[in-house]
Specification:
7 strands; single chain; alpha/beta
């Protein structure tokens, strides 16, 4: 984070999507996102983000976030095992320090495999729950596992979100056309070195996005 903060401009995802890019010598503007809503975001990432004054977006599995006692990730399909989930007081504290909340549904389901009524319920109720708890609009959505199709994208629009992110590796330039409902991201793993991280930011690994798109078309 220190390297990224010194070599680029880190801005909220909503600002990045709407073209509100600040001027910086490197020309690099980026947004940081976290999926699922693990307590580790509060315990480990938040102190670093706060110290460096870095904004971020956390995509919450809203049904996994409780008020007093942390839920186990093991209760929800597709989450990393044996993790505590955030509590709503922690979410509100994060929110008060430039960390925005997006939706990752109520129960981390595959939007491409459930019917329209179930999709609408998951999308709308998670959005409302997050807005009720934070007092701010929940405008961004993250597809669980990155899985999406035309019907899933339309459901996200219908529920009132202004953008959504995928798990496709990629970047875009300020003047490039970007599908706001299929935003690519760069996956950063815990075993990456700093040199790996720099390579991802430079775009050296963007070829992975082409492979992922081919697999998506063939699946």
């Amino acid at each position: 984070m220190e390297w990224l903060n010194s070599n680029g401009a880190i801005i909220p995802l909503d600002d990045l999507v709407t073209g509100k890019w600040p001027t910086c010598p490197s020309g690099l503007a980026c947004a940081i996102t976290f999926d699922d809503g693990y307590a580790s975001v509060y315990r480990f990432a938040y102190p670093i983000l706060a110290e460096l004054n870095i904004p971020a977006t956390v995509y919450l599995v809203a049904g996994a976030i409780h008020q007093d006692s942390p839920q186990s990730s093991n209760q929800f399909n597709g989450l990393y095992p044996d993790e505590d989930m955030l509590l709503w007081p922690e979410v509100r504290e994060l929110h008060s320090h430039s960390i925005r909340m997006g939706s990752h549904l109520l129960h981390h389901q595959d939007l491409t495999s459930i019917d329209d009524a179930a999709a609408d319920t998951e999308l709308r109720e998670s959005k409302k729950k997050i807005e009720d708890q934070t007092g701010s609009e929940c405008s961004s959505f993250c597809f669980p596992w990155g899985k999406n199709n035309a019907a899933a994208v339309e459901a996200v629009r219908r529920a009132g979100y202004s953008n959504s992110v995928t798990t496709i590796q990629g970047r875009w330039g300020k003047n490039d056309a970007i599908d706001r409902y299929r935003i690519p991201r760069a996956d950063i793993r815990r075993d990456y070195t700093l040199e790996d991280f720099k390579a991802v930011v430079r775009g050296d690994w963007d070829y992975l996005g082409h492979i992922q798109r081919i697999r998506h078309v063939m699946s």
